């Protein structure tokens, strides 16, 4: 049932259950019915969360930063699974409040990250989540003060071509400080003439040539990064229903791993 939130907007909750034969984790995400971005769980978030779930062994006790987190399903799941998590979103929008609400709905304590927080930060793995403003393309004291990061998560952060380079500038800054880090990102192909089957059968380079908007590969090369597309079927995400949610539906979502260019070995461990 919908309830009234702090800004007088109506709130609902979405529940996601990730499970296999050994383990199951349920994450509850409050959503605010508001025309602004970041108030809902986007289809990309469920796919990225499924990847996090499948890689949970590698993420345990690792430091994870989610950018453009919005209601933060992948980051909250990572925290529930034992990662030390930092959630970030633009300081200009109301999205940081969404990050906080999602943590609280899942019994996670939150801590505002300020510039004095250093590598010796007190954050306890899996129980306290750092929240920081991080606008793409901007270097801020909070960003500089983050401890070493192993994985950067970004769900549906490539939706507006004019922001693509700013997203990658932020990732490049993080890679400079964390040369062994990876960027795990999902994006939604919003053009109606692109079927997921077609995309899965094409390399990213060919996709870039097909779309004038989709210039991300050129940008990756400019910022000295390489990427690999991860087939959805390799992490059981090639389904319209994931984690008990029909949100992926028939949206064309793609999963990509990005790393600094000097890392020649396969990104898929
Ligand atoms: C399409 S929503 C995706 C939200 C969430 N990651 C998900 O998949 O459910 C895009 C997110 O990017 C954030 N965002 C937009 N512009 C931004 C910027 N310049 N810097 C940082 N975050 C930004 C929005 O606040 C929003 O949370």
Automatic annotation (TrEMBL):
GO cellular component, one term: cytoplasm
Entry-linked InterPro entries: Methyltransf_16 (IPR019410), SAM-dependent_MTases_sf (IPR029063)
GO MF annotations in UniProt: methyltransferase activity
Gene Ontology BP, a term: methylation
Keywords: Methyltransferase, S-adenosyl-L-methionine, Transferase
Domain of life where this protein originates: Eukaryota
One of the Pfam families matching this protein, by short name: Methyltransf_16
Family in the record: Belongs to the methyltransferase superfamily. METTL23 family.
Protein name in the entry: Methyltransferase-like protein 23
Species name: Knipowitschia caucasica
Species lineage: Eukaryota, Metazoa, Chordata, Craniata, Vertebrata
């Amino acid at each position: 049932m919908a309830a009234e939130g702090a800004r007088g907007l109506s709130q609902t909750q979405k529940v996601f259950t990730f499970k296999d034969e050994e383990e199951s984790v349920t994450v509850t995400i409050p959503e605010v019915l508001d025309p602004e971005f970041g108030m809902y769980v986007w289809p990309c978030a469920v796919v990225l969360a499924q990847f996090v779930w499948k890689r949970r062994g590698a993420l345990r006790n690792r430091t994870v930063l989610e950018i453009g987190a919005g209601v933060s399903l992948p980051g909250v799941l990572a925290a529930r699974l034992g990662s030390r998590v930092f959630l970030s979103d633009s300081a200009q929008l109301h999205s940081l409040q969404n990050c906080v609400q999602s943590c609280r709905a899942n019994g996670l304590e939150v801590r505002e990250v300020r510039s004095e927080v250093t590598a010796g930060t007190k954050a306890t793995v899996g129980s306290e989540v750092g929240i920081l403003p991080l606008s793409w393309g901007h270097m801020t004291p909070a960003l500089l003060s983050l401890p070493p990061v192993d994985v950067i998560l970004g769900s549906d952060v490539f939706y507006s071509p004019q922001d693509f380079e700013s997203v990658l500038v932020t990732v490049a800054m993080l890679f400079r400080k964390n040369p062994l880090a990876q960027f795990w990102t999902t994006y939604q192909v919003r053009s109606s003439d692109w079927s997921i089957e077609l995309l899965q059968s094409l390399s990213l380079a060919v996709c870039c040539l097909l779309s004038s908007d989709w210039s991300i590969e050129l940008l990756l090369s400019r910022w000295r990064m390489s990427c690999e597309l991860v087939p959805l079927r390799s992490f059981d995400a090639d389904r319209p229903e994931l984690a008990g949610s029909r949100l992926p539906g028939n949206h064309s979502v793609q999963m990509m791993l990005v790393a600094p260019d000097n890392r020649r070995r396969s990104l898929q461990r």
